Amino acid sequence: MDSAIRNYLTVTAGYWAFTITDGAIRMLVVLYFHQLGYSPFEVAMLFLFYEFFGIVTNLVGGWLGARIGLNRTMHIGMILQVLALLMLTVPDAWLTVAYVMLAQALSGIAKDLNKMSAKATVKSITGHAADNARLFKYVAILTGSKNALKGGGFFVGAALLQWIGFRNALFVLAAMLALVLLITLLLLPSGVGQMKSKPKFTQVFSNSAAINWLSAARFFLFGSRDVWFVVGLPVFLNAVLGWSFTQVGSFIALWVIAYGLVQASAPKLLARSHQHHGPDSGSARFWAMLLVLLPMGMAIGLGQGWPAGPVLVVGLILFGIVFAINSALHSYLILAYSDFEKVSMNVGFYYMANAGGRLAGTVLSGLVYQTQGLPGCLWWSAGFVLVAALLSLKLPELKIPQTQGNTSHV
User: Fold this and answer.
1) pLDDT (tens digit, 9 = 90+) per residue, 271-287?
2) Each residue of 140-162: pLDDT tens digit?
3) Is residue 197 part of a domain?
């Protein structure tokens, strides 16, 4: 097997395993602490450091990956996730808000080190002359499969909580990830994504207008999802519609799995309009404007007193399809806009904005749900998407590269 293919598959498999634990721990924390009597806003605050340190990690992680190699930053992320899982196995009396926030901070650092490493490695492996269509294909497969497995993680977390309890679930997840860590340590070479010259820390801030505008749009795109999806939706399904933990986890898991599959299939879905090259900034603008209509439609339906179950199920299906295409386009554009040598730092900067949007969305999800209910969360979501669409107007068109020589067919 070609070494580039083997490295791509190893990175992807490690990313998959990590993602299952990431989805599971999120669902475990939301449902278990809601069961303990935490308010929606208090549950949201448990993720405050998770998202905040994701911002810091993406900023520093890209620079660190360029200096020591992306495989090492991925392994550091796995080690921190194992520690975060084990931290939550202490008795309930120890699980104060501050303690759980600290554990979630470690998990947030771990998640974004792992994600930045995996995404940047795709660009590093495909080579200098990778054409845009092929780059779009591989980043969509990686990102889409990750999100599908994160949905699986939601189900695993909710099911383990109901079957073997909170702490036993955490032990199982920690053991699984530790095993994957050992395997990837043996298989991956050192130095993937490492720059020849050691970059200065000041270089982490992008001086590319395209990357800055895309990062700003990414902030509001992911804030639009998390403002109703992180706390508002699972609490509404459990507390208002009376769904069990397993039902809530299964439903959200199926949604995220389907979302990931659509994301992975985005190159095929858009192939007719982009037969010979990857999509462009016009695609990002079109799909963002289409997404605005969906949370707005759900908010109007709930406000008119339509049955909440059908409104949310149908609305979530449509939102998931369009959001997945938006996300896939963004994930492709950040790599297409990036120079080969600076890819890890550009991806780190971009995902810093992604984490910032998730932080804003997470905090607002608990606060707005507590004060304005789920319809309020959906109106906020529509507003965030509209801002993302307007920011996308500033994105420049891509140059279509001419393939030169032989490149690795990952």
Assistant:
1) 665 555 556 777 888 89
2) 677 667 767 777 888 888 888 88
3) no
**Rounded CA separation 408/397 (Å):** 26
Task: Decide if 199 is inside a domain.
Answer: no
3-state SS assignment for residue 396:
coil
Secondary structure class of 207 (helix, strand, coil)? coil
Please state, in angstroms and rounded to a whole number, the distance separating the CA atoms of residues 291 and 296: 9
Question: How is residue 199 written in tokens?
Answer: 């970059």
Query: 75: closest CA among 187, 204, 157, 151?
Result: 187
Range of the domain at 101: 3-192+204-392
Name the helix (H) or strand (E) containing 19.
Answer: helix 3-35
Of 20, 6, 1, residue with least CA distance to 180: 20
Provide the token pair at 23: 């989805």
* CATH at 264: 1.20.1250.20
pLDDT: which is higher, 408 or 263: 263
Of 202, 219, 195, the residue nearest 338 (C-alpha) = 195
Mean pLDDT of 328-348: 71
- CA dist., res. 331 & res. 115, Å (int): 12
In degrees and rounded to multiples of 5, residue 408 shows phi and psi of: -70, 130
In this predicted structure, what is the pLDDT of residue 396? 81
Largest CA distance in the chain: 63
**Residue 354 or 207, more confident:** 354
CA distance 342 to 347: 9
> Is residue 397 situated within a structural domain?
no
> What's the N-to-C CA distance of the chain in angstroms?
11
Sign for the pseudo-dihedral over CA of 253, 256, 260, 265: positive
Q: Which alpha helices (H) appear in 165-265, and where do they start and end?
A: 166-187, 209-229, 232-239, 245-264
Residue 63 or 19, more confident: 19
Amino acid found at 194? Q
Q: What domain count does the chain have? A: 1
Give percent of the chain above pLDDT 90.
Answer: 18
Distance CA 5, CA 11 (A): 10
Contact in structure between 77 and 65 (CB atoms under 8 Å): no
Higher per-residue pLDDT: 23 or 116:
23
Nearest to 88 by CA among 151, 14, 13, 36: 36
Q: Taking phi first (over 0 means left), then psi (-120 to 50 degrees means alpha), and beta for anything else, what does residue 203 get?
A: alpha
Burial 213-246 (b: 16+ CB within 10 A, else e): bbbbbbbbbbbbbbbbbbbbbbbbbbeeeebebb
Please answer whether residues 150 and 260 qualify as being in contact, where contact means their C-beta atoms are separated by less than 8 angstroms: yes
User: pTM for the complete prediction?
Assistant: 0.68
Residue 328 in domain: yes
